[in-house]
Amino acid sequence: MSIAKNLLSIKSTLPEHVTLVAVSKTKPVADLMEAYEAGQRIFGENKIQEMAEKWEQMPKDIQWHMIGHVQTNKVKFMAQFVSLIHGVDSLKLLQEINKQAQKNNRVIDCLLQIHIAEEETKFGLDEEELTSLLSSNEFQEMKNIRIVGLMGMATFTDNKDQIRKEFTHLKSIFDGLRKDASSKDALQCVSTLSMGMSGDYQLAIECGSTMVRIGSSIFGGR
Fold first, then answer.
1. Among candidates 59, 62, 61, 79, which has minimal Cα distance to 70?
2. β-sheet bridge partners, residue 146
3. Neighbours of 185 (CB within 10 A)
4. How far apart are CA 96 and CA 145, in angstroms?
């Protein structure tokens, strides 16, 4: 099947409230343009330099999502155009995003990454670190970032019960954050729960995901 057909097939399975991020990392601009011509406007990349090169070459109504681990010294290369940064996992990174957003006269939307997997290789904050970050004076002072939700990655396993348990755990943290939002101005925009990829996105949606990151099912293997 073509990229366009893959894309439309996946979109037909998604509920209206779920946003599709087409994960286009390592794929050539021609492949992205096929998805674009089929109506896709949100693309996810995991390397800032590659994303910046594609941003320069492609239509400007595209929303670019940074879905990979972000190094603080690279933030400046995407601060001008990035729509959403998925993997924010430290106060230090948030401060750098805020600084670079300020330089570009922007407010940059961010998702805080929560560590839910049993694999040590995955990045993210635990619940204690999340609470500590959100209650810190440094966080309260940042005016050029907006926390719009949470992101998490389940353990890479075929055990669906374990994946469901991890997604459900993240949803409960998300629900708690939304409850807090009523009393904290800085969290007024929390509405996005980004969880689920090609192999587990349907389970993620069952567990409450509002944004899925799908690559290989659209563009083929890497």
1. 79
2. 109
3. 8
4. 10
Q: What is the pLDDT of residues 88-136, one digit of tens each?
A: 999 999 999 999 999 999 999 999 999 999 876 668 999 999 999 999 9
3-class secondary structure per residue, 152-178: CCCCCCCCHHHHHHHHHHHHHHHHHHH
Determine phi and psi for 212, rounding to 5 degrees: -120, 150
Residue 49 burial (C-beta neighbours within 10 Å; 0-12, 13-18, 19+): exposed
Pairing outcome for strands 84-88 and 108-113: parallel
With residue 211 as reference, give the H or E element that holds it: strand 211-214
pLDDT single digits (tens) 31-87:
999 999 999 999 999 999 999 999 999 999 999 999 999 999 999 999 999 999 999
Exposure string (b/e) for 124-143, b if CB count within 10 Å is 16 or more? bbeeebbeebbeeeebeebe
On whether the CB atoms of residues 6 and 218 are closer than 8 A, the answer is yes
User: What is the C-alpha to C-alpha distance for residues 93 and 89, in angstroms, rounded to an integer?
Assistant: 7
Alpha carbons 6 and 8: distance in angstroms, whole number: 6
Reported residue count of the chain is: 222
Q: Round to the nearest angstrom and report the end-to-end CA distance of the chain.
A: 16
